[in-house]
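User: Before I run my own analysis I want an independent prediction to cross-check against. Here's the chain; please return only the structure tokens and, at the end, one sentence I can use as a sanity check.
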Amino acid sequence: MQQRGRRPAVSSTAGKRRQIEPQIPVQDIIDRYVVDGETAREIADGYGLNERYVFRLLERHDIPRRGRRKALALSNAEIARRYLEGRVEIRAMAAELGVSRHTIAKRLDEARVKRSVGYRGRDLPDAEIAARNGAGESARALAAEFGVSHSTILKRVARQREAKPQRTNSGAQSTR
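Assistant: Structure tokens:
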């Protein structure tokens, strides 16, 4: 006698899998993954499946899972060389290679390249920036032109003001 409210311990997905799998071209999925190099997500989207289902299907057919690391057109050594010699910005290199800036930063770290943090080491024309900002040009416009944040521009303008001697009412110069 079966108790009320309990169902038999049978997997509800077992029957569904048997119904779905004959409709899915398993060999095509394997070929697209192994030979064509497509990702599981791309395959899943193409067949209207879940990415996890594609991985399980590949696992059932003893297909090893590839790593998540994207192959780049340049080696870590070449990325490091271009960064150090040409001082190519990480953001520009990432855009060129079609990856995120975090990927380039990780590859530089792996190559043991010491990266400058932010724009602290960047040589900017502080006097020109301060003059243009004083003439009414916004910090955001200057930041976009020089490829830095607007807060960097504001800090550079403040530093120029502090370094510039100012006249007092008595006519003598003072440093503020």
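Sanity check: The chain has a mean pLDDT of 78.
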